[in-house]
Amino acid sequence: MTQSSHLLRQILVKIAALQSQGRKSLAVFDLDSTLFDVSPRLQQILMDFAAFPLHKKLFADQIQHFKNIRTERKDWGIKNALERAGLDKHHPEFLAAVRDFWIERFFSNEYLQFDLPYDGAVEYVTKVANLGADVVYLTGRDVQRMGAGSALILKKWGFPLDDIQTQLVLKPHKDLDDAEFKTNWFASLPTNKFTDIWFFENEPVNILHLREQLPHVNIIFFESTHAGKAMPPEDIPAILHFLMGDD
Ligand SMILES: [Mg+2]
């Protein structure tokens, strides 16, 4: 059994034990790059950029390289994929156009359909909920641009979402800082409602902010990709997937 599997199982055992004592637990999952691999969303946006008639005309040389573009798990934003295809330099108009095109689509309901859940994610969240824990999807996506699509896609993949035991929480406004929004949300939970709280998150900045203010939350670092603005603390557990291995 891998280290990830071992930790994932330990959490299930704890939830079951608490539940049997009549105590509540809460599992909170970030969405982008924690439950969902967003690199297919990124890939689709880049392909659509290349297919856009005006872009074919304006950026013919660059678009020839787009057939080589493959997004990867470790990619953050568009920069890495463009660099690998040799498209990172010497053309500020092109880079600005890709960036604008990307921002408009990446943070939109329409493109969430291309995301893929990480291995075992749907099954794991379902197990957590079936054992009786409350589940919250806590995301830096905002209600206006991505609320409807987020709920739709969670349901499409079979993630539990009943708005009672299992809920989706998005930023009320896009300009809010992700780390502050998430920490404040945890701080607003009723005191003593939950005996144990777990938080699965890929972004070290969010992890560090939360942990400084609310050290009682058990944080699990999901090792996929992040903005590179901070490193994850070495003393918190990390997982690479949501697979629990053989029974
Ligand atoms: Mg994330």
Folded structure, characterized:
With 247 residues, this protein is of the alpha/beta class. It contains ten helices and eight strands. The chain has helices spanning 3-20, 39-51, 53-58, 60-64, 79-84, 92-106, 121-130, 143-157, 178-187, 204-213; strands at 25-29, 36-37, 116-117, 134-142, 166-171, 196-201, 218-222, 238-239. The strands form two sheets. A six-stranded parallel beta sheet has the order 5-4-1-6-7-8, with helices on both faces. Helix 8 (143-157) links the parallel strand 4 and strand 5. Helix 2 (39-51) crosses helix 6 and helix 9 (178-187) runs parallel beside helix 10 (204-213). The protein is elongated. It starts with a helix and ends in an 8-residue tail after the last strand. Magnesium ion is lined by residues 30, 32-34, 202-203.
Strand content: 5-15%
Helix content: 40-55%
Order of helices and strands: HEEHHHHHEHEHEHEHEE
The low-confidence runs, each spanning 5 or more residues with pLDDT under 50, are none
What's the topology here?
Elements: H1 3-20, E1 25-29, E2 36-37, H2 39-51, H3 53-58, H4 60-64, H5 79-84, H6 92-106, E3 116-117, H7 121-130, E4 134-142, H8 143-157, E5 166-171, H9 178-187, E6 196-201, H10 204-213, E7 218-222, E8 238-239
Parallel strand pairs: 1-4, 1-6, 4-5, 6-7, 7-8
Antiparallel strand pairs: 2-3
This protein binds magnesium ion (MG).
